[in-house]
Specification:
The chain is mainly β. It is about 0% helix and about 55% strand. Strands 2-3-4-11-6-9-12 form a seven-stranded antiparallel β-sheet, with no helix packed on it. Strand 2 and strand 3 form a beta hairpin. The two termini are about 25 Å apart. About 30% of the residues are buried.
């Protein structure tokens, strides 16, 4: 039985893209949402060879997902591609310099900043294989929060039981359309669902791609 929970949809149609440095930035979620553990969700499209300085708070885990293109982060020599994710954990406030590594193509990236209770400082690069359809795949094993991405065929349904009942769930449709708890979400729409134990969702289009986190 579907249990209704407090929820909020952030529609992509009302997004405000701002020109910053050599990119355009859309802040999907900020601290104004009062989500405690999820501080920021930002998408940015970097110009050819462009860069951006993302400022994070102290005690943060920052997850960088390349949606399209190839980037460099800070002084790391090896580029990050669309089949990889970059995670950094920091006890101190600071910033990440994200640079488009391609001179003839734009880069599209997603950055999620979460509150962290870990005492250490580290970074990692992980491969993400989402070629298998109709299943949820962990994005990063380095985050303190359950996090998943999934590629679905049309009309595929799934039920997800939260690892920590009563957590808040943040979902983002990266491509296509889904129905979350009887709510329609399309490309780049976000949803925040509070006080939930089980999530029911259905893909409404082919190659529909979503990610979500328990926060």
């Amino acid at each position: 039985m579907l249990v209704q929970s407090a929820s909020k949809i952030i529609k992509a149609d009302f997004s405000v893209w701002k020109k910053k440095e050599s990119c355009v930035v859309n802040t999907m979620v900020s601290e104004q949402e009062n989500l405690n553990n999820l501080r920021n969700v930002v998408e940015m499209v970097l110009d050819e060879g462009g860069s951006y300085h993302f400022t994070h708070q102290l005690d943060s885990s920052v997850l960088v997902i390349v949606l399209y293109g190839e980037i460099l982060i800070n002084d790391f020599i090896k580029p990050i591609t669309s089949e990889q994710v970059f995670t950094v954990q920091s006890k101190e406030s600071g910033f990440l310099t994200v640079k488009n590594n391609l001179a003839d193509e734009k880069a599209d990236i997603l950055i999620l900043e979460l509150k962290s209770k870990r005492p250490d400082h580290f970074f990692s690069v992980e491969d993400v294989n989402i070629r298998d359809k109709n299943t949820l795949i962990p994005i990063s094993n380095q985050l303190e929060y359950p996090n998943f991405i999934g590629l679905y065929e049309g009309r595929q349904e799934q039920e997800y039981s939260l690892y920590h009942p009563k957590n808040t769930l943040f979902g983002l449709v990266l491509n296509g359309a889904f129905e979350f708890q009887n709510m329609l979400l399309e490309t780049r729409d976000c949803v925040i669902i509070k006080e939930i134990e089980t999530l029911e969702f259905e893909a409404l289009s082919e190659n529909a791609l979503l990610l979500f986190l328990e926060v």
